[in-house]
Amino acid sequence: MSSAVITFTPLRTELGLIHAYGVDAEKFLQGQFSNDLHALASGHGQWSSYSTAKGRMIANFYVQRDGDGFWLSLAADMADIVIARLRKFRMMAKLEIARGEPESALFAVSGRGAGDLLGHALGLAAPETGNSGLVHDDRIITRLPWVDAEAFLIILPASRAEALSAGLTAAGARAGSAEDWRLQAIHAGVGMISSATTEKVIPQELNLEVLGGINFKKGCYPGQEIVARSHYLGKLKNQTYRISARAPLRAGEEIFSANMGEQSIGVVINAAPDPQDGFAALAVLRAANTGEALMAGTPDGTPLSLGKLPYTLPLDVAKEG
What we know:
Layout: E1 7-10, E2 15-21, H1 25-30, E3 45-51, E4 57-66, E5 69-75, H2 79-88, E6 96-99, E7 104-110, H3 114-122, E8 133-136, E9 139-143, E10 151-157, H4 161-171, E11 174-175, H5 178-188, H6 224-232, E12 238-245, E13 254-257, E14 266-274, E15 278-286, E16 294-296, E17 302-306, H7 314-320
Parallel strand pairs: 1-11
Antiparallel strand pairs: 1-7, 2-5, 2-6, 3-4, 4-5, 7-10, 8-9, 9-10, 12-15, 12-17, 13-14, 13-16, 14-15, 16-17
């Protein structure tokens, strides 16, 4: 087991936690989110999203189940916004919707061999397949469905966070930063909607269909008609790409192409420094223009390069066909 590339990262500054629990939690959230909660077993997880009636994503998140409760990991600056909106529509449903912090903490463990190291540190068999997980000793441990990468999310009482850090360090992992984690997510092709990009794209444009974050048979939820139309009628024009630049990029920054003048063809979703490429990002782009020269900020702004994602993009397949 190589510990040099295995990192553990407290995500309190990067991701926020929402805890929704109670007898009506599953029923209520099932009618709000893009994915199907009914088959989600305790400890397991899934990508999902919460949209306006027009299909624009307010936020996306990773959902982990704990009995009849659900934990949402999402961009830190969107947690209170999502809580307020969910409470607005809660009506008579019997559930509580609250911040998970400061009572609970969220950790990520990632890198080749992370599952073995995590199992050794915690004395258990770590989940081996994406979205699988377990609840053990007040901890929820779920393996993310990243392609060709091992990554786990752990939710635990904040009082036990220091002990977890010590145990992972002793097992050979190193502490990582929030930017380290964001860069890993960018390379995995997993974007997170923040306050800079909320209500700007629909779920498929963030590749949530590819990532398993949309269930087209689950029934109604806000924006469901728009999402279904894009899927069944082939209306999708934009998707998320990995890009790089020699200058800093920022979430919400517009992207332009050589042939579209001052008309924006996309937006940066997440960005982070990258020792290999200078600065890396995920951006929603108009697929028809990705073969042109691309610039960030202004039509004559920072030049961009397209990178590879670890999964196939549906519009690119259609273009090749």
